[in-house]
Amino acid sequence: MLNDPLFPLLLALRYMHILGAIALMGGAVFMRFSLLPSVPALDPATRAQLHEQVRSRWSKVVMAAAALLLISGLTNLALAGRYDFEPILGKEKLYHMLVGVKFLLALPIFFIASVLAGRSAMAARFQANARFWLNLNLSLALIMVLMGGFLKFVQRQPKPTTIPPAAVNSLLQ
User: Fold this and answer.
1) Along the 173 residues of the chain, how does pLDDT read in single tens digits?
2) Distance of alpha carbon 151 from alpha carbon 96, whole angstroms
3) Phi-psi region of 156 (alpha: psi -120 to 50; beta: other; left: phi over 0)
4) Which residue, among 32, 51, 24, has the nearest Cα to 133 in the 3D structure?
5) Within its chain, how far is the Cα of 70 from the centroid?
6) Cα dist from 168 to 55, 160, 162, 165, 173, whole Å
7) Residues in Cβ contact with 84 at an 8 Å cutoff, skipping those fewer than 6 apart
8) Are 55 and 117 in contact, with CB atoms under 8 Å apart?
9) Which residues, listed in sequence order, are joined to residue 91 by a DSSP beta bridge?
């Protein structure tokens, strides 16, 4: 891995992905288990002011984290074609299927996080039931983290480079 010419890019992508996931999931854990239970004790005016202050700041974090995760995830997905992955449970293409499931799980996670940080009428409806939506989002995120942790242990080998036939070489010259 260290001798891969793309190692600096792969390392940067890994850090982007980890930091995006920490920010998005860590913020959701904080909101669900610390902020949300504390807010009912506040008077309505303070509660509304706190909500707007947190929402306006958190929405920027959600956008940045989602961007980091999308950029790094899609780039990693494109670069996965450089490798042959060992079969999982005897299935040759199960690695790619699980990565696809992870990608599909990311979409509702980004959507829920974005709506909970939003200002629209739909956002207000989601925010009125924030406990449910945060629980759902954290459950989906936990599944993704567990899947990602498992997939990191799947052995992979760089695909062998193929030498073009002599006829192709003569055309390239």
Assistant:
1) 788 889 999 999 999 999 999 999 999 999 999 999 999 999 999 999 999 999 999 999 999 999 999 999 999 999 998 999 999 999 998 999 999 999 999 999 999 999 999 999 999 999 999 999 999 999 999 999 999 999 999 999 988 877 766 776 677 66
2) 10
3) beta
4) 32
5) 7
6) 59, 18, 12, 5, 9
7) 156, 157, 158, 159
8) yes
9) 88
Identify the CA nearest to 147 among candidates 96, 81, 102, 106: 102
Q: Extract the tokens encoding 151.
A: 């997939």
First to last CA, the chain: 32
d(Cα 88, Cα 91) in Å, to the nearest integer?
Answer: 5
Rounded Cα gap, residues 111 and 103, in angstroms: 13
In angstroms, the Cα distances linking 127 to 3, 8, 35 are 48, 41, 13
